[in-house]
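Regression report. Comparing outputs from two consecutive submissions.

Submission 1:
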Amino acid sequence: MKLSYCKHAGWMLALMSVMFFGSCSNEVDPVVKKDAEGDAATLPAGLTVSVFGGGPIYQNRTVTIPELKASGFTEVVVWNIAVSTAGDLNFNGEFPVASNGTYIGGSMYPNFASDLQSLKTGTTSVNRVTLSIGSSNIGDFQHIRDLINAQGTGSTSILYRNFQALKAATGADAIDLDDENCYDLSTMVQFCVMLGNLGYNVALCPYTNSNFWTSVATQVNNQRPGTIDQVHLQCYAGGAGNSPCNWNFGGIPVHGSRWSGSTSSVQSQFTTWKNTCGTTGGWMWLYDEWVGNGMAAQYATAIRNGLSGTTPTTGVKFFQHSNYGGTATSFIPKGNYTLSQLQAYGFVNDWASSMQVPSGWTVILYQHDNFGGTSWTFTANNSNFANTAGLNDQVSSVRIQ
């Protein structure tokens, strides 16, 4: 299950101290972008690589918007919209965005709407911006149910007018629906059809109750074909046992997910799902936990490689012994790596004794984790760290440029 915005707010406060507080058809065109190695790359047609992110997207915009555009993710899901009993919309219980049929987000975060639009413009990997509703232990869908039962979903209803205003301001492509405690089929179907009529696509985001969700998809797309075009399946926390290979939505693609973990484990899981049932998309939860540390591009690359059946064939490689002997890491692409991030590639603390560096690359090695202590810079292979004073078996973090 995804955390409620109330739970989200607790760990967000901790994040603030270090960050200054911080849908279209599934027939996706190839996306030309900058990948984790910094070279132009093309995402194979039909693959969707998504990331969910919360408050930092608007609270720390000077970092998050450029990073997301360069990340390799094709879909950014902004989490989460709360729907009040009156039909007002806000993000995470603290950022009002629509009320009485008017977009009001500019009063608190004046750049939010234009930032969402900019995610898909210029040099970018992003081709879809989605806004997510719902989570655990909150009443969004009860409020939606009650409002629809009272007002319907016509052009004069508050839900219609507020979501119309939100789309006009932000240009969002889709709405993601994560109902975890209401499960009212009739009003959910009406809500999805209304969103489709407003120009949104709809992505479902289940972790359980498959019969409900497949009924929603069938009824909505029977009434308005193509409205529901993705399923963001939660495969962590309460949905940890889920697999996209075990959820059948007919022709609607089901995209599995990971919550953190090593990039090698993420790639391996998506390779397994791809080989088992041909899944064509995947997503990561939660961008808020790795803003600005290079992991966005690394996770996007891991999903892409898992879905496309490729592995990196270039990068820096570290070896346990001199002269490139003993255990070796996998290829490590350009980026900044703390110890925990290096370990995802098979690196061991205070262990490396030689390394291979691609032509034209620069590697800065650090004695301590988090880029602390003595540093050494190299632009070529080094067959024996012992020849450099203090370097052998001392590396704990790395910058690769």
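Submission 2:
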Amino acid sequence: MNFLYQVILVSLTALILLTIQAQPLQAAGLTQSEDFLARGTTKVLAGDYGGAISDLDQAIQNHPNDAKAHMNHGLARAILGDKKGAIGDFNRALQISPKFAEAYYNRGFVRSELQDYEAAISDFDQVLRLNPQDADACHCRGIIRHQLGDHQGASVDLGAAINLYFTQGKIEAYQGLVNQTKKLRSQLFPVS
């Protein structure tokens, strides 16, 4: 399996768990649209992606300007393999909420899976404009830059991600990236 693909797959799994926040299904005062959004989000977390899409379709139908519903819909579609549909959902979320960093991140991630690396880098650039402390965006952009042969840019991004993970107390991510960086360096500079 391609090293970049492994990194992206692990990052996508972690991102889904971090960006989708489950809400109580029967919380007092939820509108029908909010209930569908909460149920769809919960189903994504439970691995019921088809069910999630169905509920999120309803949430979007009831409230078409809910950027979070479009983003979560895109995440479910991406996991089910509908990458182009997912990008459409992320595009719609960004039309509604142009400063929605998570939607840029997710779109960049899916674009990288489609090997549209320049567009993915552009999305990660936007995430970092909106949130300069986003270690995951630095990490992903660095991996893509490495894949494209921009080893200097990759080194800067991966170094920044390592520092951010450390200062943010994300020790597992920090150690994982330190190990990945060692592997990348050994690929670039093999010891004879």
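Expected: both submissions complete independently.
Actual: both completed, but the second showed a warning that disappeared on reload.
Relevant detail on submission 2: The first helix runs from residue 3 to 19.
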